[in-house]
Amino acid sequence: TKWCAKDDKAVKNAATEMWNVVAKVYVAKIGEDGYESLNEAVAAVQDGETITLVADETFTEANRYNNGGYWDGLGYSGDKSFTIDLGGYTIKQDGSLNDYLIWIKNDGAKANTITLKNGTMDAGTTAYSAFATASSNKQTITVNLENINLINNISNGAVVKARGGSVLNVKAGTVITGKDSYVGIEAVGNNTVVNVYEGAEIYQKGTTSYVGAIIGASYNATLNIYGGKGKSAKCGIIVMSTGATINVSGGEWTANTDGTYANDNKGVLIAQSASGAKSIVNVTGGTFKGGYNCY
């Protein structure tokens, strides 16, 4: 009916309105509501809702997040519980990030749970991590990674970094690949817990300047490894010199590519200690290919 209007102004307004609808490209949806960026969707999501990607998301200078002078892709701080379903799509960046591809923090009055699933997160060659968690208070943030491919390419970075008393669950179908990173999963700090379950996979090509570990923990964090598998060109599972606890009850873990013993930080289980820090490794199950080093 608008196109049949005799008033030229009405016709022009109708054409403009239709063009705006056609031209708008959504990256994510919450129910029937569309959003042009993942940051917009996360700002709008309500407790218990699901954000679903409907296209790939590339973080650039135009849509990145300023985290106190560091550049992340998605930056979230709050106390909402929600799910991001990538729907088979990819989240990446164009070289504009120097910190985290996705950074999630509990900065609220209650505990929360956030789940990321069904897609790929590629941090590229300039971001420190593909994914990082944090918490600034006594409330816990629990993050579930389900059926996610996480990729990191920078030599001084961790593919996944859990900090500040957060709980990270690495579940079946999740594949973590460090093409040139120093650790696949890094757990840091008091009350930080990382749980690795059967069906998770971690691969590290290692670097020339860093240890290239599959999984590492420091500053009194705890790693519980129930299953999964991992392989590194260098180190396997490591307690770093600042101290932590690692409990392993399953999985298959291979160091030095083929599991042959080698020194030079290529053990499959390594416990370091310095300045009185406690390094604890409890092993009740699992298959290990490589040497064990304690120093």
| SS-derived structural category | mainly beta
State the separation between the terminal residues, measured CA to CA. 80 Å
Count of DSSP strands: 27
Helix content, binned percent = under 10%
Could you give the order of strands across the largest sheet? 7-10-12-14-17-20-23-25-27
Largest sheet: 9 strands, parallel
Radius of gyration: 22 Å
Number of helices: 2
- Tell the overall outline: globular
Give the percentage of residues in beta strands: over 45%
Mean pLDDT: 89
The H/E string reads: HEEHEEEEEEEEEEEEEEEEEEEEEEEEE
Q: Stretches where pLDDT falls below 50 for ≥5 residues?
A: 1-6
Tell me what you see in this structure.
The structure is a single chain. The protein is mainly beta. It is built from two helices and 27 strands. It has helices at 8-23, 38-44; strands spanning 28-30, 33-35, 50-53, 57-59, 65-67, 70-72, 74-78, 82-85, 90-93, 100-106, 112-122, 129-135, 141-152, 158-162, 167-170, 175-178, 183-188, 193-196, 201-204, 213-218, 222-225, 229-232, 237-239, 244-254, 269-271, 279-289, 292-294. Strands 7-10-12-14-17-20-23-25-27 form a nine-stranded parallel sheet. The longest helix has 16 residues, at 8-23. It is globular. Mean pLDDT is 89; it is low at 1-6.
Features:
295 residues, 27 strands, 2 helices, 8-stranded parallel barrel, mainly beta, 9-stranded parallel beta sheet, disordered N terminus
